[in-house]
Amino acid sequence: MNDKPAEAARDLGAEADFEAFPAPVEVDNEPYFIVKNAESSAEPYRLISAICPHAGGEVRVYGTEFVCPMHFWTFDMQSGECTNVDGEKLACAPVFVRDGRLYADFPDGKSVKSGTIGRSAERSNAEKGACSRSRS
Ligand code: FES
């Protein structure tokens, strides 16, 4: 059971409605993927932005990675980390389950993608590390 207030997070939909992952979703009219988190059973899902931090291309699922069709940056599907350019990462947020629904735990209640397109170097450490935050 998660003690996060659902009101402060974004409702992504009923867990039962997602049959396959990564599952494409929109938050604030921006594309994301919900992925299964193989690293933690306490945090079974993550939300990863589909917007490439390089120049705003929309990444797609290709095999076991996300690939940006603009300049072919590739990203790990679990962490969002770029696998061919050091230090880059898709924006991401933890997801928690409450009462059978998935909620994205955005910092300050805002989409983690906001303000990051094309300016990945300016992202705050909090945004970069959003996926790896541990819950208490
Ligand atoms: S915009 Fe994605 S690799 Fe350039």
Q: Give the CATH architecture.
A: 3-layer Sandwich
Described by strand count, sense and barrel closure, the largest sheet is: 6 strands, antiparallel
Strand order of the largest sheet: 1-9-8-4-3-2
Mean pLDDT: 80
**What's the SSE pattern?**
EEEEEEEEEH
Molecular shape? globular
Hey, roughly how much beta strand do the residues contain?
25-35%
User: Mind telling me the C-alpha Rg?
Assistant: 14 Å
**The CATH topology, please?**
Rieske Iron-sulfur Protein
Q: In CATH's first tier, which class applies?
A: Mainly Beta
The rounded distance between the terminal residues' Cα atoms is 11 Å
- Give the helix level as a range of percent: under 10%
Q: Low-confidence parts lasting 5 or more residues at pLDDT below 50?
A: 114-130, 132-136
Tally of individual helices: 1
**What small-molecule ligands were found?**
FE2/S2 (inorganic) cluster
The total domain count is: 1
Number of strands: 9
Specify the CATH homologous superfamily.
Rieske [2Fe-2S] iron-sulphur domain
**Strand pairing plus helix content: what structural class?**
mainly beta
Protein name: Rieske domain-containing protein
Pfam families: Rieske (PF00355)
Keywords: 2Fe-2S, Iron, Iron-sulfur, Metal-binding
